[in-house]
Design goal:
By secondary structure, the chain is an alpha/beta fold. The protein folds into two domains: 288 residues, P-loop containing nucleotide triphosphate hydrolases (Rossmann fold), CATH 3.40.50; 246 residues, Rossmann fold (3-Layer(aba) Sandwich), CATH 3.40.50. It has 18 helices and 25 strands. It has a nine-stranded mixed beta sheet, sandwiched between helices. The protein has a seven-stranded parallel beta sheet with strand order 7-4-8-3-9-12-13, sandwiched between helices. Strands 18-19-22 form a three-stranded mixed beta sheet, with helices on one face. Strand 16, helix 14 and strand 17 form a beta-alpha-beta unit. The longest helix is centred in the N-terminal third of the chain and has 15 residues. The chain is globular and about 75 Å long. The N terminus is likely disordered. The protein binds glutamine. The site of glutamine (GLN) has 10 residues, from strand 21.
């Protein structure tokens, strides 16, 4: 176990311990622990430190793949096909590290492996308990993230809020880890809220004091307090927090509301958080400001040269987190095209032949994201028909691509009531059907076609023009596919299969001839877009929208 904590600095020929940063949250949920963790990773990375992140989720689901978006928000898919928490999306967007199923730990997955071990007899003779068996398993999983020794620092974010019953084993595990590795090799950062009361024009520190007390009751003393606030914290306020929470005054960091999540690393840098962490963990580093990030990302978000409006037709549009990566990818495409992308969220259940015109009037692009189940399907098909006929740029993601095929079948190929067998298994024209490999699958968790797969592109198509290469890898999460039985009929009517699996058996991308830009992809490009590396399909989709405007 102990050896796992070590990594080799080859160049200096000495052995160093992996350093850990544990991030907890207090007072209320949704304070942005994920953004904070990603921003800290970004700042350390910019100083030449190799960093990775882990998210611990205290729920009992083995992974979030079986939860609906109202419960959990987006399910983020990694290259290795893990269905993970959306915070991994933030980590990937802010850093260069690569993330896999190792980087998301849930109570469900911990219990599952402990129970499997118990059945195998690995604890023979013992009563299996939360401490030490569950906590040992958590520690083992956290250290496993850096088994390769590639990283100097592992940032561990504990989901939920201090005081939640479910989170206790994780907090106990990180308390023990600090004992195991020592305080020069680990620090605790507590993200908390400093509310502002308009009536008395005051900011209040009491909730933070209580939250820190709660942490200290279970043996965790925060080293840094990251204070979410809408008003700047003055010296006296920081001093008060410092005194009551037993944290040094320079470790009381203001995390003021930002206009864009990509500004957070810059604001934290102004508070010298990276300097503080480097000092506390005794890390060797260069000191570099985030100049590129400021110029090429944040400043472009703040000073767009033009604007465009995209209709986003989905069924979970009231929930900001449900399509997190897609919204972010549109922001990235705006950054790359020097424009502000306004997203007009359209509830797919409200789109009908009568309402489509007024709902989509004036947009320069239509996007239909992924999804499951029949609700809202017909509205999305209406919106796609509108985009196709009015020659408005269209991007369909996963389900969005499948529905574009259905729309084309019904309205161009004359296949009346064509459908996906996901929604109607009696349809006369099952143009989308279950994947061959899915036919025998009975369990729901982690059994879709998941993760990165290769795809070859056809020369001369919009997809090829976007990627500028013929072999790409993109992440999938689906059970249904284009039905090859209909290939010829579709091609004859002008649908272009611009991307297929290398053996040409699976259709991965469809396009339409004689349309400015109409692309539907069976995969999820949104999982690969970064603010400083916009995904080529999102970039070109927004470029087409801007061209339409001209
Ligand atoms: N429901 C469709 C399928 O399973 C699409 C999935 C998705 O959009 N992620 O194939």
């Amino acid at each position: 176990m102990e050896s796992l904590h070590f990594w080799l600095i080859h160049s200096f020929g000495m052995i160093q311990m992996t350093k850990y940063i544990f991030i907890t949250g207090g007072v209320v949920s949704s304070l942005g622990k994920g953004i904070a963790a990603a921003s800290i990773a970004k700042l350390l990375e910019s100083r030449g430190i190799r960093v990775t992140n882990v998210k611990c989720d205290p729920y009992i689901n083995v992974d979030p793949g079986t939860m609906n978006p109202f419960q959990h928000g987006e399910v983020y898919v990694t290259d290795d096909g893990a269905e993970t928490d959306l915070d991994l999306g933030h980590y990937e967007r802010y850093t260069c590290a690569s993330y896999s199923r190792l980087n998301n730990i849930t109570t469900g997955s911990i219990y599952r492996s402990v129970i499997e071990k118990e059945r195998r007899g690995e604890y023979l003779g013992s009563t299996v308990q939360v401490i030490p068996h569950i906590t040992d398993e958590i520690k083992k999983r956290i250290t496993a993230v850096n088994e390769s020794g590639d990283y100097q620092v592992v940032i561990v974010e504990i989901g939920g809020t201090v005081g939640d019953i479910e989170g206790l084993p994780f907090l106990e595990a990180i308390r023990q880890m600090k004992q195991d590795v020592g305080s020069l090799n680990s620090i605790n950062i507590h993200l908390t809220l400093i509310p502002y009361l308009t009536s008395s024009d005051e900011i209040k520190t009491k909730p933070t004091q209580h939250s820190v007390q709660k942490l200290r009751e279970i043996g965790i003393q925060p080293d840094i307090l990251l204070c979410r606030t809408e008003k700047p914290l003055d010296k006296d306020c920081k001093k008060k927090i410092s005194l009551f929470c037993n944290v040094s005054p320079d470790a009381v960091i203001q995390a003021i509301n930002a206009s864009s999540i990509y500004e957070v690393p810059l604001l934290l840098q102004e508070e010298w958080i990276d300097e503080l962490i480097v000092r506390m963990l005794n890390l060797k580093s260069t000191s570099k400001r985030l100049v590129d990030w400021e110029e090429k990302v944040v400043s472009r978000i703040k000073n767009p040269l033009q604007q465009t409006t995209i209709a986003f037709v989905g069924k979970y549009i009231t929930l900001q987190d449900a399509y997190k990566s897609v919204y972010e990818s549109l922001t990235h495409a705006g950054i790359e095209n020097h424009c502000k992308v306004h997203i007009r969220k359209v509830d797919s259940e409200t789109v009908t032949p009568g309402s489509v015109e007024s709902l989509l009037e004036g947009v320069q692009g239509v996007l239909v994201p992924g999804g499951f189940g029949e609700r809202g399907i017909e509205g999305k098909i209406q919106a796609i028909q509108y985009a196709r006929e009015k020659k408005i740029p269209f991007l369909g993601l996963c389900l969005g691509m499948q529905l574009a095929v259905i729309e084309f079948a019904r309205n161009v190929c004359g296949m009346k009531n064509a459908n996906s067998t996901e929604f109607n298994d009696k349809t006369k024209y099952p143009v989308i059907c279950i994947l061959e490999t899915q036919k025998k699958v009975t369990e729901k968790g982690g059994t879709m076609r998941l993760g990165a797969y290769p795809c070859v592109l056809k020369n001369g198509t919009n997809s090829y023009k976007a990627y500028r290469k013929s072999l790409i890898h993109e992440r999938h999460r689906h059970r249904y596919e284009f039905n090859n039985r209909y290939r010829k009929q579709f091609e004859e009517h002008g649908l272009v299969f611009s991307g297929t699996s290398p053996s040409h058996t699976l259709i991965e991308i469809v396009e339409i001839k004689n349309h400015p830009w109409f692309v539907g992809v069976q995969f999820h490009p949104e999982f690969r877009s970064k603010p400083d590396h916009t995904h080529p399909l999102f970039r070109d989709f927004i470029r087409a929208a801007l061209n339409l405007k001209k």
